[in-house]
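Hi Y.,

Following your request, here is the sequence exactly as I used it, all 334 residues.
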Amino acid sequence: MNALVTGGTGFIGRRLVRQLVAQHGASSVVCLVKAPATPLERDALQTFRAQGLRLIEGDLVVNPVSTEAAPSVDVVFHLAANIDTDAPEEALLVNHRGTARLLDWIAPVSRGARIVYASSVAVHDRVAEPSEPIAENSPLTPRTAYGRTKLQGEVILRDRASVDGYSWTVLRLPTVYGPGQKPDGLFDQLIKKARSGSWLGRLDWPGRTSIIHVDDVAAAMIELAGRSEAAGEVYCLASDESLTVGELARSIGVSVGHPVRPIRIPTLPLGLVRGVVWNRAIQAAVPAFGRLAFWRLSLIVSDGFWFDTRKFRRIYTKPLKDIDEGMRGLKSEV
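Below is the corresponding structure, written out as tokens. Let me know if you'd prefer a different format.
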């Protein structure tokens, strides 16, 4: 497998490149890279150079993406994105406009290639209190600029496939965790709250939320990129667990040596909160500065970002890390 990776210095990209190099050799991997923004990204670039990977300097929000010609590869793993759910739409152009410009750049060599696009559960989201998990055919109703721009990226990828002659696979991801995970993301917040003993971290939030370890994401991406039956398909990726946020907090607390003593949320107040956060009139009346907090609350009092993974597990049958195994690995590498 000869592969081009965008976002290779990022959280998932670093683990993906590691597995690609281990399986196919450094000479088979090309990374489109830009100036690193964090110490982890700088370290990744140094590692890539030491391994002898071909690095092409470029920027997906610039046209053309790079002054160098796109390489001829079998697979493009498109991971580059702005994943900040707090960011305004103008800061998220890389998610959709960047996808279009990537396709422009690789158009001369993309015929016959497979493009694997890392999307998000946020393209689905919820507009009413959920009664079942999210599946690939669930409504697409993103409530954040991040979710909207990732969905636009999916549409651009699908719409151009017949003209440019590539095949595609879209992988919608839930919360991804592991070494180098998103600062101040769900896992980082729960770790901090467990260590501090914060009462917010002890509330037994009942909303189920899907998770998956970063190494499992990378392994699934590589396998599905080579599976002919995955062409033209969308998959919701997650581990085999159906944990509530409260259960997740307790597992994380044990793993970091600060067990969490749960505080049960009484049924009546919980029902009132659910009634408020899923009321469309109230949602519309929330001022702009409070909308993200309101949105996040809706996802933890109800089964917000919870995936039905049956389609994914029919094609990808390898074992997946559960939270205890994943946290042991995280603790040993942090």
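The mean pLDDT is 94.

Thanks again,
Q.
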